[in-house]
Specification:
Length: 252
């Protein structure tokens, strides 16, 4: 009985599933922005509109139609920056992503730890961006293609002063160094402490636009920090650095 019902009504059920999935993904895109509350209000209005239409409430149905139309225009005008940012993030998302093996992840983290500790000890600055879900292809194109396995010695060589690529950032995709000397966007956050230099501002700027994990090595303070999702994890020791990279890369 149930199977026959589902077979006869599979299209409406599929439409409902697709609709709720779209609503869920849209709310995720706007999460953390001022547009989220307005979006929730729009969903309430939409739900109310369908209810009033089914109950044949003529006056309320007409009123909500007018209000809903005006709200759509207001959303497009007022929240244009958030909408543009969300669409940009949609374009950066990968439909299929190869999952990094545990052994490869452990090796990558170990090499990054060794490179970070050695650079900090030798008072050499560095900036490393690790790609997660959001593609960093655009930033890779701004630098020099390397396409090499991750190695502490190679990272240290790239950031050695007077090296043509030492001023930019290294971008890592999966377990490979994709490019070096990459240019990252600087944050527009005016409240950022003045003690942070260009590398920290570039790392924060990229973290505002993507879900990349940013490792910043400071030559002045001789420490290693991680920036992820606008959050700073400062002055990390070797064990802490490995643990935090692994935790963030796995999405915990």
């Amino acid at each position: 009985m149930l199977i026959n019902y589902l077979f006869l009504h599979w299209k409406p059920l599929l439409e409902i599933i697709i609709l709720w999935f779209i609503i869920y993904r849209v709310m995720l895109f706007f999460e953390g922005t001022r547009a989220l509350q307005v979006l929730r209000g729009m969903i309430v209005l939409l739900f109310s509109f369908f209810v009033f239409e089914k109950l044949n409430f003529t006056v309320l149905d007409w009123l909500f139609k007018q209000l809903f139309g005006i709200s759509i225009i207001a959303i497009l005008v007022i929240f244009q920056p958030e909408i543009r940012s969300a669409l940009a993030q949609l374009g950066k998302r990968k439909l299929f992503k190869h999952k990094l093996k545990e052994a490869d992840l452990a090796l990558m983290v170990k090499q990054l730890r060794e490179a970070g500790e050695n650079l900090a000890k030798n008072k050499i600055g560095g900036l490393i961006a690790i790609e997660k879900n959001d593609s960093l292809a655009g930033y890779i194109q701004s630098g020099e293609i390397i396409d090499a396995r991750i190695g502490a010695d190679l990272i240290q060589a790239i950031f050695t002063p007077n090296n043509p690529l030492h001023d930019g950032a290294i971008v890592i995709q999966q377990d490979r160094i994709a490019a070096a000397g990459c240019i990252l966007p600087l944050t527009t956050n005016q409240e950022l402490n003045r003690v942070f230099g260009t590398r920290h501002r570039a790392a924060l700027g990229l973290s505002e636009e993507t879900d990349a994990i940013l490792i910043v090595i400071s030559e002045e303070r001789q420490d290693v920090s991680i920036i992820y999702g606008n959050k700073f994890y400062k002055d990390l020791g070797g064990v802490e650095l490995e643990s935090k990279i692994t935790e963030l890369f796995k999405g915990q």
